[in-house]
Amino acid sequence: MKLFSCQGCGQLLYFENVRCENCGRALGYLTDINEISALEPAEDPAQGWRALAAPQKIYKFCENYDAGMCNWMVAGGGDTGFCLACRHNRVVPDMLVPGHDVLWRKIETAKHRLFYSLLRLKLPLESRADDPEHGLAFDFLADPPQTHASEVMTGHSNGLITLALKEADDVTREKVRTEMGEPYRALLGHFRHEIGHYFCSKIVVRCTRSPFRKTFEIAERACTSCNGFPSTTRSEASFPFSIVPMRLSARSSLAEFAVAA
Q1: Residues 95 and 203 occupy one common structural domain
Q2: Range 6-13 contact pairs with CB under 8 angstroms and sequence separation of 24 or more
Q3: Angle at CA 33, nearest 5°, toward 32 and 35?
Q4: Angle 135-200-136 (CA atoms, 0-180°, nearest 5)?
Q5: Pairing state of beta strands 89-91 and 137-141?
Q6: How far is CA 95 from the centre of its chain?
Q7: CA-wise closest residue to 88 among 118, 67, 47, 58
Q8: Are 37 and 51 a contacting pair, CB within 8 Å?
Q9: Nearest to 132 by CA among 161, 153, 93, 158
Q10: What is the helix (H) or strand (E) element at residue 155, kind and residue range?
Q11: C-alpha dist (Å) from residue 256 to 21, 206, 212, 253
Q12: Distances from the Cα of 49 to the Cαs of 16, 56, 82, 114, 149, in angstroms?
């Protein structure tokens, strides 16, 4: 992940920082310029914040900021209160259950890192508000309390990515990794795997341009071979395709088609 610098004092900043440890300025991520920016209150504090990295604009924090789940900004005069990452959440954990806030925070940390890459790749990010049937959405679900009920399965279906809340528990995730003989198992890996299914069905399979298909033919084979299988039945390493770690040389081809589609 890229390292950033405070525009106010030059202090080294990390992607998840919400305050500069040196000068004390509030920090927020600006999706329009892919930058963590130091913030200062606008002339009218009720309007929001002025970002030192883009002083000509007024921003406000995503609505999930107060819950400690997000440090991304939205336009000060915008109608939506959620940022480009959080607007895709459909179901979030019940915050009244002890410990759910910690698990959700870990999930959002991984998901925001995923969206950082997706935005840099300039991939289409339609929400369910944009496309009610196939828009990208996330359900973060806990297993039901009843012992006889089925466990939540992580997977993708028509744009809806379901992530089992227990995957954010380090002990549980390591136990599953050992039982399944996986070399690694991480939240960000889950997101990358499932988003690969989403973009495979949305972009790659629909593409008829031969140069693009030649570049990503391995992705089409992987997506076709996965149809009908819950994602948790195979390890992430079983599939050769993941949309995020692709070589940078292929980025322009994917972004070009995404815009054309």
Answers
A1: yes
A2: 6/38, 7/37, 7/38, 7/52, 7/53, 8/38, 8/52, 9/38
A3: 120
A4: 15
A5: parallel
A6: 20
A7: 118
A8: yes
A9: 158
A10: strand 155-157
A11: 40, 14, 10, 5
A12: 18, 11, 16, 25, 47
The amino acid present at 110, given as its one-letter code, is A
Contact predicate 220/213, CB 8 Å: yes
Instruction: Centre a 10 Å sphere on the Cβ of residue 20 and count the other Cβ atoms it contains.
Output: 22
Residue 76 identity (one-letter amino acid): G
Q: Which residue has the tokens 């992987």?
A: 222
DSSP 8-class letter at 44? S
- Please write the tens of the pLDDT for every residue from 61-111: 999 999 999 999 999 876 669 999 999 999 999 999 999 999 999 999 999
pLDDT tens sequence across 191-235 = 999 999 999 888 776 666 666 566 655 555 555 444 443 443 333
Whether residues 174 and 99 share a domain: the answer is yes
231 with 162, same domain: the answer is yes
Cα 41 to its chain centre, rounded Å, is 28
Instruction: Specify the residue for token string 């930058």.
Output: 35
Model confidence over 3-62: pLDDT tens digits? Answer: 999 999 999 999 999 999 999 999 999 999 999 999 999 887 678 899 999 999 999 999
CB 108 within 8 A of CB 66: no
Q: Which residue has the higher pLDDT, 226 or 148?
A: 148
Do 145 and 97 fall into the same domain?
A: yes
Q: Are residues 91 and 76 in the same domain?
A: no
Instruction: Report the domain count for the chain.
Output: 2
- Full-model pTM: 0.79
User: Which residues span the domain enclosing 68?
Assistant: 4-82
Kind plus residue range of the DSSP H or E element containing 260: helix 251-260
Q: Cα(64)–Cα(43) distance, rounded to whole angstroms? A: 24
